[in-house]
Amino acid sequence: MLQIHRPTVSKAIQQIEHDLGVKLIHRTTRKLSVTAEGDEFYHHARHVLAEVNDMMASFSPFLPPRGRLRLDVPLALAHTVLIPNLKHFQTLYPDIEVVLVSSDRKTDLITEGVDCLVRLGVLQDSSFISRRIGYIRMVTCAAPSYLQQHGRPETLADLEQHRAVNFFNVHSRDVMEWTFIEGGSIVSRRLVNSILVDNSDILLSCGLAGLGIIQATFDALAPHIASGALEEVLPQYPSVSKPVSVMYPDRRYLSPKVRVFIDWFSNVLAKQIS
């Protein structure tokens, strides 16, 4: 805590409001609330302070990386890759406090204060810096109950007669294409929807319930394949591995805590795919 008295803070805010010519805080006898301009000013100020901290840290190469590292990671990767290995990262960098947000939705790095965003698949154009750090194996599966009812596809053409649990982007409404390797070439297929989902946990649950064929990360489905709850289909047409990328704000000085996480996670992914 800064241990600054409330009148001093109030006077400082009033001075900023005077200099800007806008009201940052609504004041009543009962409460204070931030205005839209105040919220925007806060986020810009936090971004500037983060850049200053990153710059200072980049000129201190002999100090170990430290501070709070806010990550946003897809659910499937968080469950099966990041969390099982995170203890190793904490052992290497005990002064970094990890704040893990796990989602499959679109995230605004600046307004949500995210230091590093990890995403699967081909990234859309973005004003942020992106870097591909590896690949994750995919697999196509279905529950025994689905196969008993609808039969087992033997060729890619057979997929036209089947239904799928498809993943879609909640913002763009784009439905994920399924990709396979056939005769050394990559081919795409769009399957008829049994149900559309925007969450990898829900996609898995739908697959286990026999609602349709699913294509997801191998690490997420492997335990269910081993238990017999899911069966791999079309193993002769391997699913194409998906790229894994990281995104971070366009800052000149990349924070050491972000840099070491990216390097570490790249090594983790390399071991997963090998």
Automatic annotation (TrEMBL):
* CDD domains associated with the record: PBP2_CrgA_like_3
Q: Which family does it belong to?
A: Belongs to the LysR transcriptional regulatory family.
Report the source organism: Mixta calida
SUPFAM superfamilies attached here? Periplasmic binding protein-like II, Winged helix' DNA-binding domain
Keywords of the record, alphabetical order, are: DNA-binding, Transcription, Transcription regulation
- Among its keywords, does the record have Transcription? yes
The record's listing under Gene3D superfamilies reads:
3.40.190.290, Winged helix-like DNA-binding domain superfamily/Winged helix DNA-binding domain (1.10.10.10)
Q: Which PANTHER family match?
A: HTH-TYPE TRANSCRIPTIONAL REGULATOR, LYSR FAMILY TRANSCRIPTIONAL REGULATOR
| Protein name, as recorded | LysR family transcriptional regulator
Which superkingdom? Answer: Bacteria
Give start and end of each HTH lysR-type domain.
Answer: 1-35
Does Nucleotide-binding count among this protein's keywords? Answer: no
Task: Identify the InterPro entries for this entry.
Answer: LysR-type_TF_proteobact-type, LysR_HTH_N, LysR_subst-bd, WH-like_DNA-bd_sf, WH_DNA-bd_sf
